[in-house]
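re: that complex we talked abt at group meeting.

here r the seqs, copy pasted straight from the sheet so there may be weird spacing, ignore it
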Amino acid sequence: MAHVLNFPVTLHNVTVAYRQKPVLREIDLQVPAGKLVGIVGPNGAGKSTLMKSILGLVPRASGEVRINGRPYKEQRRQTGYVPQRESVDWEFPTHALDVVLMGRYGHIGWFKRPSAQDKEIAMECLRKVGMADYADRQISQLSGGQQQRVFLARALAQDASIYFLDEPFVGVDAATEKAIMALLTELKEQGKTVLVVHHDLQTVQEYFDWVLLLNVRKIAFGPTAEVFNEENLQKTYGGRLRLGADHDPLLGQRV
Amino acid sequence: MDSYWTLLTDPNTQWVLFGCLLLGVASGVLGCFALLRRHSLLGDAVAHAALPGICIAFLLTGSKSMLWFMIGAAVVGWLASLCIGWVTRYSRIHEDTALGVVLTVFFGIGIVLLTYIQHSAGGSQSGLDSFLFGKAASMVLDDVLVMAGAAVVLLTICALFFKEFKLLAFDPGFARGIGMPAGLLDALLMLLLVAAVVIGLQAVGVVLMAAMLITPALAARYWTERLDRMIVLAGLFGALSGALGTFVSALVVNMPTGPVIVLSATLLFLFSLFCAPRRGLLAKIIRLAALRNRVARENVLQSLYELMERDARQGGWPEGGYGEEQLLARRPIGERVLRATLQKLGRNGLVQSREQGWLLSEAGLEDAQGLTLNLRLWDLFTMYEARFGAIVVDRDRGDLIAQLPADTRAELHELLRQHDMEPTLSKGGGSR
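got the structure back, here u go
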């Protein structure tokens, strides 16, 4: 089905609620293939929750998620996930290569140990993020940017076609941000679909060719050039974003 | 001495020793996963909940069979862990409070049942109260065989699911994302925790069993940065504690085995806390002292260098040298530290004592020159982050500049000239 191939991630009427309070309401989404998609919105808009609901990590109150036209459970190997860096304890007794190897666990299967080939793949992924020299380093001794690179390498080791990244640029140095963006662009050029929860409005136009503006509901979704405008931002951020008549501090020269 | 030997060769003592070894290994290994999954206190709750389980098993079967006690303890311990899960999920109570509530309620029920049994006919001989603090001496061959069976099953499952348990403890969200049944694995881990507690009940007892889950794992964490080694070490520490406890209580009159096992584990933990390389407190103190020495040395060399550089540009430095107050004005460090550092540098031939104070020797000049150059290049490197930011440098190593590629170093040297920060003082250039 050509339609399915063109839209690897589709959401239909997805609602998620914590303790009766909806955090996502009636989200309809058709993410086109081979795009680098930014997900932006104010705090509490449900950006991370959206990602987690797609990946089946939070229960949906209603709605349907399809990956490549099939339920997520059947498509796990097609997805790679980079959770927020603070979601794990970096004091855990393990080293960088071992964390990247965890990206292979979905492919290895039960009871078996990672093979030499898995280790090679993991090492190659570390090399791609510029961390090959740190393979044996205990993870607590890595800087924030290095930890993020390791997480990204783990997602690369999943060898997926759709990638989900939750706030990958938080607490990360400028060099790492650049390196991560270069890698994501490379993935996109390989025809893979990349979704990124992002909070820095200044870089949205530079980084993403598609953008989802989210605030509990879907405000707008489309090519950045078309939907990332003052009107939609006003709808998304409401009074929190004060826009000047001719100068906008957040959008820079564009307005 | 001879009597000690007969005691240790006594088959009964040997069984007790074997049982305590098993208990140590099992709880040490399981404790690692519990600790890293942040379930340490869950072990405590499960252990306390085992008491009503044992009592119910005795009331139902009327017999003192180790196997039934284990089943009873496991079922009720399991129930307690489920209760904690329910309370946390369906109420506003946090897990720590839920633990406290469930633990005390189950233990309370256990004490009520225990009292009832002991006051009923034939119950006073049941010896159930020994499960409170453990009574290793009461172990017989059959008990040890049941314990051994449980331990083998437990260790096998841990080995089989090593990879899954590791991911579950490190990043449960990711584990679920790649399709691992995190809920089931957590339940399995819980079941194993219950099994480990049950193995230790007879020797250590319900009240102290949590210590055997936490302490060996915690001690092992100090010695390694790898989970597989940590698990092996925790098992060893647990076994060692079990053996020590058995020996001490066999050799010294009126020594309870269980508490001595727990105290042995604590001793091992304290030893690890202080003496472990890298993570231990002593190692940290030594590292800190070495760092302070190095910084003081670099401070003094640099201050002297800067003073001499300044004066060399204006004709020459004073032959009498620079006094301590001048050095302190440059970089305020402790006076005693300054004096000690100068003495040491003097012994190494890097500084010379003059009438009014100190001067760098030729060797010292060379040393300070290299040091200053490196620090100034590094200042520039961080100043121009936008230009050099893409270069990955290992900041934990001392030789930061040597790690840079040659063309970057050349660029930095050029910047140094532009900013007029080049260290200009070389050997022989000066007052003469």
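couple things i noticed - The longest strand of chain B covers residues 351-353. The interface with chain A takes residues 36, 160-161, 163-164, 166-167, 169-171, 173-180, 221, 224-227, 230, 385-386, 389-392, 394-396 of chain B (CB under 8 Å).
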